[in-house]
Amino acid sequence: MSEPIAAIATGQSRCAIGIVRISGAGCFAVCDKVFRADSGKRFAELPPRCLSLGSLSDCGGAVVDHALAVRFPAPHSYTGEDCAEFHCHGSPVVLREVLRALFAAGARQATAGEFTKRAFLNGQLDLTEAEAVIDLIDAETAAAARNAAAQLDGALRRVLEPLQDSLLEVAARFYAVVDYPDEDIEDVRPGEIADALSRGIESLDRLLNACRRGQVLKSGVKTVLIGRPNAGKSSLFNALAGFERVIVTDIPGTTRDTVEESIVCGGVLLRLTDTAGLRDARDAVESLGVARSRKAVDAADLIFVVVDGSAEPDAEDTEAVRLAWESGKPWVFVRNKSDLPQSGGWTETGVRTVEVSAKTGEGLSALESAVAELFPDGDAAPGTLLTDQRQEDAARRAREALYRAQNALESGFTPDAALTDVEEALEAIGELTGRAAKEELVSRIFSRFCVGK
Question: Which whole number is the average pLDDT over 391-418?
């Protein structure tokens, strides 16, 4: 798997600068056939990790760009192999011609995520750090970017390694005593095993208790706006989105289907869904829209019940509140149109109530504060949040195995019975970090990456 691979590492659209990346054994010789440094030096002689100016040629030897090249000798590179980058003018045509020239010189097209996969296989990253790369690329909030950057820097690995080492030490000493009874090796006392198990369970508990926050950071919160027609749901949707995403009119029933947009509110990523007004539909199309509104409530993690604060409550408002209460999900009571004279018919709902004007923007900061209170940052250190279902599943299996080991010791079983579960926990943690990950799992993880990363 060390043959030279190459790919465009930046987007395919026209931009100021485009980067072509190459990695693998012999990649400097490949680069020599494509790049001519203005200094006259061969590519392998260029100063490492410094920009060198020169010209790039196409397959026929014609110059297609004057660009900068960077040489990264192994092992001090992203992949751990000899690696190079060409920083070109960002014409898609130029980038494709450079890539074709590299292929003609002996490189092959990199597959999705292959650069990062090589970094993992060469020990430059563990699996949690490799997954943080795609999380950083996909980050939609500053908090998500900070968590991914810290995880890429090894924050999660530094939590898991002491746990893994502690359990390995206990298991290794036990089997050393069993396999070499004549050697002077101190036996493992049940108390030592119990302490290691307790510390392991506490560590995994902290990780799993923060899982919800990790999922919110990465995937966002499915949020639905419900209420009667003309309560101002679409106007509020547009105000939160920051542009006219939904058509707004004075005619009830304008929104006849669900409309979705991703927004950041109170530092939390919301997958916001506007819905058709809840009422007795007047035609088949509107009826379908109302049915989808109810389904959106079932799928939501957060509900905004939007009412017209300037109008008297009616049966449709009561129905919206009932749906929110019975869902069992967090919800916010949003009294819209605070810029108009307010009705005296509204009473406390017993939940967070926010008065806003979607028209003027008044009260939107209070709505952001309500969302931030519902989904707080928590006290987890940056980078220690599990953001992937795979990570959560492996951590959960490890904790369950340690619980079984703990119960076995407390029930009076011999240490070897507990250590069977310790080994299962170690295998699950190894899947999490990549120490014991199977090739099929590794391939599936890196297939999520874009080509060139």
Answer: 86
